[in-house]
User: Which sequence fits this backbone?
């Protein structure tokens, strides 16, 4: 295995992700940031220098479990102090499992500002994937607003509340088209056909293929808000990987992908080779006001021109039955690690939209998460009293809460308390969805766990009951790091607390996390040996270091 070094500078720059010039957060002058490619077992070392003028930054390596390096998880106020302008922080961590991953900012709304890129881990030398392919491509999906993230964040924390609204564009590898459509001539749209130079920043990323070959398409979603459906016109796909875990191969026409998820699919170029085909990413789960993101599958030796057929038709945005049946198709590949058959602890998390002093929030068991000034990892390790709320949040919610109705009393509180998890204990979490503040509204939330993969034991409708607990899938549940809760439904997961650290578990919709939709798991922190000083040189841990050094 190798040690792979990267020197990165994060900075704002002018860029036209969807043909409209804006300010984006880039890395080394690139948007999206550079792709990291490594082999399982390698060590990645990223020297990250903050070239933003007046704000801190961190980067989270989404899906990488950070065994023995919990300070490198890249979560502001949780695993480390933010990196200040002109400072360099060294992220050093092992990528221990092959798969499709990505990285992104995890401070304020910096992911929405464009701070993201792909992280791809190939199998180690001498190892093989359990499937064959002739070539591969990688698509990183995101959504893009013309309103800058500062305005977005201020709106979310204002009274009256200003919602960010739906995105202007869906980007595929950082490229979308706002004021025109690649498919104007073949779909019923009022937009005009794009006339783009191939080297324009918003020109689509074209996939060049040979006929009669099999390709692996790696797809990851780092959207701020949007749930997407991805399809390749006229081609079937076989799903083989989810969130860096092999799954039982299953043939599908298209895939639902929620923010924080990744998949690999195989497709064979067995269609009429005299034409090109569309790849589309269409908004689902919220009333779409954003045209699909599009790119082109270009069969050799055709020119990379616009396909003559219409883009694929996706399921209706509110066809949740379709989404549920898709999610239920994902099961573990035979021979994958199985979950332990019993649990040590069950935590039931009610997801509600709330008000605090007139401000809109999201709460979990009636507590809206606010992050403390001193990152948890250091304050917990050194027992610094007063760094965050002493009282841990509850493991359950009131039994008579009606999840089908808007909250009777929408007032909630904010808090920074943590769930303390014992080393090697087996934890079940039941994510319980509910009605939002408006009547007859319940939204999709993709939940992402840091530091772990978990088994998805099942999805269900309504309020989770003891009956449901007996019917969980312990036979072949898939391992993942992100899972969705459907409107008015619940989702059950299980994980083994085998990774000392402080780990966020949160809705991956960035404005929702910003509004408090997450919890913190403090796991066996007493087992962590030496935390690098640069991760904790702020707040109360910074003061402690100063005293220790006789400052
Ligand atoms: O957090 C959210 O706020 C809006 C809406 O509920 C209020 O405008 C919305 O759709 C969200 O997901």
Assistant:
């Amino acid at each position: 295995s190798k040690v792979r070094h990267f020197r990165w500078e994060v900075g704002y720059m002018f860029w036209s992700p969807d043909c409209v010039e804006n300010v984006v957060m880039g890395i080394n002058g690139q948007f999206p940031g550079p792709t990291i490619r490594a082999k399982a077992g390698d060590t990645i070392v990223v020297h990250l220098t903050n070239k933003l003028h007046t704000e801190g930054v961190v980067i989270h390596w989404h899906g990488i479990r950070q065994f023995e390096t919990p300070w490198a998880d890249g979560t502001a106020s949780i695993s480390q102090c933010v990196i200040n302008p002109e400072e360099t922080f060294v992220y050093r961590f092992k990528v221990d499992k092959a798969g499709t991953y990505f990285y992104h900012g995890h401070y304020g709304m910096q992911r929405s500002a464009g701070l993201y890129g792909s992280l791809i881990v190939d199998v180690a030398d001498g190892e093989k994937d359990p499937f064959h392919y002739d070539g591969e491509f990688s698509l990183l999906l995101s959504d893009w607003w013309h309103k800058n993230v500062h305005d977005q964040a201020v709106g979310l924390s204002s009274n009256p509340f200003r919602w960010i609204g739906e995105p202007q564009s869906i980007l595929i590898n950082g490229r979308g088209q706002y004021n025109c459509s690649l498919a104007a001539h073949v779909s019923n749209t009022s937009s005009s056909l794009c006339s783009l130079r191939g080297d324009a920043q918003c020109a689509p990323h074209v996939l060049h293929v040979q006929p009669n070959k099999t390709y692996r398409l790696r797809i990851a979603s780092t959207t701020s808000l949007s749930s997407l459906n991805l399809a390749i016109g006229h081609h079937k796909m076989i799903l083989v990987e989810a969130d860096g875990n092999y799954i039982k191969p299953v043939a599908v026409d298209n895939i639902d992908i929620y923010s924080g998820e990744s998949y690999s699919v195989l497709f064979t170029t067995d269609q009429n080779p005299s034409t090109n085909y569309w790849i589309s990413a269409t908004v689902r789960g919220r009333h779409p006001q954003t045209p699909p993101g599009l790119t082109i599958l270009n069969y050799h030796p055709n020119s990379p021109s616009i396909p003559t057929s219409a883009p694929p038709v996706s399921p209706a945005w509110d066809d949740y039955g379709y989404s549920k049946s898709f999610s239920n198709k994902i099961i573990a590949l035979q021979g994958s690690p199985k979950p332990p058959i019993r649990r040590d602890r069950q935590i039931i998390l009610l997801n509600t939209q709330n008000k605090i002093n007139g401000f809109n929030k999201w709460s979990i068991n009636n507590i809206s998460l606010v992050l403390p000034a001193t990152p948890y990892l250091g304050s917990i390790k050194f027992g610094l009293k007063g760094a965050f709320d002493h009282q841990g949040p509850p493991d359950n919610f009131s039994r008579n809460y009606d999840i089908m109705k808007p909250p009777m009393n929408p007032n909630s509180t904010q808090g920074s308390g943590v769930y303390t998890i014992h080393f090697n204990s087996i934890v079940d979490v039941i994510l319980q969805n509910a009605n939002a503040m408006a009547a007859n509204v319940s939204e999709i939330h993709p939940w992402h766990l840091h530091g772990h993969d978990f088994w998805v034991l099942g999805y269900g409708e309504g309020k989770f009951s003891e009956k449901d607990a007996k019917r969980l899938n312990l036979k072949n549940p898939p391992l993942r790091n992100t899972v969705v809760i459907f409107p008015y439904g619940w989702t059950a997961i299980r994980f083994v607390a085998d990774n000392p650290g402080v780990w966020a578990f949160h809705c991956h919709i960035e404005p929702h996390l910003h509004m408090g939709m997450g919890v913190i798991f403090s796991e066996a922190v007493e087992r962590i040996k030496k935390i690098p000083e640069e991760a904790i040189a702020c707040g109360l841990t910074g003061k402690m270091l100063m005293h220790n050094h006789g400052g």
About this structure: The chain has a mean pLDDT of 97.
